[in-house]
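Try it yourself: sequence plus tryptophanyl-5'AMP, in.
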Amino acid sequence: MKRVLSGIKPSSDSLHLGNYFGAIKQQIELQANYQCFFFIADLHALTTVHSKEELQKNIRNIILDYLALGLDPEKVTFFRQSDIPAHPYLAVILSNFIPLGLLKRAHAYKDKVAKGEESSVNAGLFYYPVLMAADILLYKPTYVPVGEDQIQHLEITRDIAERFNKLYGQTFPLPQPFLPKKESRRLIGTDGKKKMSKSIGNIISIFAPEEVIKKQIMNSYTDPQRIHPTDPGRVEGNPVFIYHHLVNKNKEEVAELEARYRQGKVGDVEVKEKLYRAFMDYFGPARKRRKKLSSKPQLTEEILLQGKKKASQLAEKTLAEVKEKIGL
Ligand code: TYM
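Structure, out:
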């Protein structure tokens, strides 16, 4: 059985549409036919989260969100990165197989430098791609289901693996990204400009209270050229229609709304209200499950304990192989 691995950073307390369509939907589908290892990247979250309570709340919530969305802990090994010391251990080893220049070109770091924030960037952010390479290579996966923003990290991982294999013999298979269809790879935010991201606040949450979601949808950017509902509007690249295509199961309704929008025969409010309804239909069952799961916080620790046992076996095996090869 081919192996799949992916992770999510608990830097916020709930998932958004970009996480779901960019990565989680694929992860949940892959659990049927692949040996899956999914984890909470809590060590990675330390680049931004510096409150114990917040970190622990985020971890618990994300696990419950995953379960509500259909993750089956019987099929998937679901674990917490910090439970497996082999991750930071391998990262220290791998840091010797990556040129500094490559890390300087990593997007997250480069963006900060471009904004003149280099002196306030913590070293954890700079080192992030090395830890991520260790996360992945320990499990020797064939696929890594992620959104487009992680492709560069995958390239760096492959680069490190190739260098290592060349020096010490074939050790790491080169992992491939497993991407969703084009519109979901880099889901646009409700500001219509940037990638949907919690840190920007341009999100539609999956499990937030109804009134929060309604507000997020109703405040979404549409076509800035369109002043009146009678003006012909642009559908292409319009976030509200991109979201409609993802969540609205009534394809006729979407086609009809698009046609009327192009002709200037529908207002933004109607398009958004229908989006809100479609969103609630799509995620309604998961939201119900999520509510029930809230009363079972102990479940998360049970799942993590099981996951720790299985993940550490594999991770320790790879780490031992690496140590033996390099002479440690
Ligand atoms: P994170 O926590 O930022 O995001 C989790 C997953 O959601 C995807 N994603 C998106 N996809 C499409 N459109 C969007 N707007 C959008 N926003 C988020 C991300 O691509 C990701 O797949 N570095 C990783 C966590 C990580 C990891 C790993 C992943 C640590 N180690 C090893 C895979 C393998 C991250 O910060 O994802």
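One thing you can check immediately is this: The CA atoms of residues 145 and 178 lie 4 Å apart.
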